[in-house]
Amino acid sequence: xIVLDTQNxxxxxxxxxxxxxxxxxxxxxxxxxxxGPRVSGGDLSYLIQFADRGASPNPNEAGxxxxxxxxxxxxxxxxxGVGDFRLPSLEFEPxxxxxxxxxxxxxxxxxxxxxxxxxxxxxxxxxGWETLVVCLEDPSTHMQVELYYGVLEERDxxxxxxxxxxxxxxxxxxxxxxxLCLDLQRGDFDLITFDGCHAQERNPHRAPLRxxxxxxxxxxxxxxxxxxxxxxxxxxxxxxxxxLCYGAALLYSGxxxxxxxxxxxxxxxxxxxxxxxxxxxxxxxxxxxxxPEAAMVCSxxxxxxxxxxxxxxxxxxxxxxxxxxxxxxxxxNNWEATEFTFDAEKLVDIARSAAPLGxxxxxxxxxxxxxxxxDKSGLGDWFVNQDKLPGGLGALVPRIQExxxxxxxxxxxxxxxxxxxxxxxxxxxxxxxxxRPHTRGRSQxxxxxxxxxxxDHIYEAIKTVLDSADITYVKWDMNRSLTDxxxxxxxxxxxxxxxxxxxxxxxxxxxxLRRDYPHILIEGCTGGGGRFDAGMLYYTPxxxxxxxxxxxxxxxxxxxxxxxxxxxxxGAHASAVPNAQTGRSVSMETRxxxxxxxxxxYEMDLGETTQAEKEIIKEQVAFxxxxxELIQQGDYYRLTDAFQEGPYTAWAQVAPxxxxxxxSLVTGPARSAEPLRTLRLKGLDPDVCYQVNxxxxxxxxxxxxxxxxxxxxxxxxxxxxxYLSAV
Length: 727
What we know:
The chain has 13 helices and 39 strands. It is an alpha+beta fold. The strands form seven sheets. Strands 6, 7, 8, 9, 11, 12, 14, 15, 19 and 20 form a ten-stranded antiparallel sheet that branches. A hairpin with a 5-residue loop joins strand 33 and strand 34. The protein is globular and about 85 Å long. It starts with a strand and ends with a strand.
């Protein structure tokens, strides 16, 4: 709900449990007054304190009033060069070469429904949304900044976006345009970031805010394995169930910057948006630039509720899922079974082993196209390798379908191998500056997806493949960071647009694919989880969570991912042992329990599994199908912290009506004389009695407060699942 006090220029955004407010003051400076637990309303600008801070400069309108400084006041969208020395949100350069932005309030618009952003991902929906647009302007250059706010009241979600319009008479160069600025007049916060590397993505790191700037960023051309564009500010004592926390996610899959500054007044400013590294966008008179959307959830009751609100909003108001209303298929992928060495008969053999176990989708991974026998050749040549697959997909796919499985393929459209027909014909289509040698990653180069001609060629080639057979799934991979980012189609003074235009090009390709093939389920992948962000989820309902399929490592990776992203988005497979990444061996039961808390599938040669393992897989698949809605759509509870060394890792999914729940647990390394332990559950209805695995009747409040006694476990990394159903 958006409440306007037009007489005093106060704008209040209410969600179910939170309130957000800003006010344009007597000098038309847009000040941030409050964001926190829901309050009844009124003008909260009384909370802003004015004082002479000595060296803090004062704007011209304030005259000799020394207690009014942009440096000490909470700004709704921070500027630069005119007295605020903290993190800027906006920086532009007019023709006179100055770098000053002095934004003043102009007007507002209030609209029903949710705004959209051309060419960019955004939360969507007409029901339950309201939109506020606040317009600011720099009086000297007539650069206008439109601040967009979307309010989804039931989900405690507030989205923000920014559109900059050149209303002046001369060209301006935009050097920085953040999507979110949040000034909080408190100093006692922790910052949580989600960091790692390839095969160890999204590990939470928590530290108290100190004076100065703390930041995470990516300059890799993707949101990256190393830092995620989602951060949390929270009370220093905040836990899963207690304390105030603010989650902020950027819907963007390219270079980003998330920075927090604690000031000399012990105020905090969070700025989130496109990374200003190698970013410069030219705006001629009348032209506009739109920054990506950011989304915020404030939870007065800990991380758990913050996560669940993000999960619900992402599932219901961000993802466009071709399987909406029906179950996604359980898949078998051939990569870890064969890598590049396969032919049609081998693929059919794997599918033949999978069908009796209840698997429903066969995914043919890398190696089916061009002369692709290793990772040094073939990328860009999107036609079927007839030596491996005689007769092409038109011959192979019906054989798979006859076994009862649908068919999917792996592609890597953004990449090109130097050993390929496409590179020999169009070497200028790859990123690379004249006179400089190439920098390779995984023995491949990156296509310049900022170019329409490049995108059109690749799209038409892949479209020909998709039209050749009944394909229901596409895994869109991207296996390197961007280097040598120089576009042959941009002049020298506009090369600062190349990174962002590349990201927009990826979005445009995915949008075309989604519109032309609405029945195809697209899974994103960037060397695993290198582009696991809310922007990509707008186009791909699920993303391969990590190339690391080791079940024990996945406990941490999937736990860290769950702070923002729901289970239904996490690509997760049970793979062969010893694991290819760690060499660790754990039971099939454990591998299945962990993978089941994702999109679920298998990645192994099922023909090499024992009969006992086949029976376990068959039971796992049947159990997943039976409880699909609970697992994929239920509210997610982290019952333990997977990153703290302990005797076990536990989590739960609870149905929206709280009539059923699934509790999963995996133990750590075995120890002698292990203590007897009890697991306290969460999310149940305290007034309902539950059967546990079909037996007994225990009140919900008892299970949550007193807990459930755990058995003695023998051996390392043992699983347990409890299915609870209301009596």
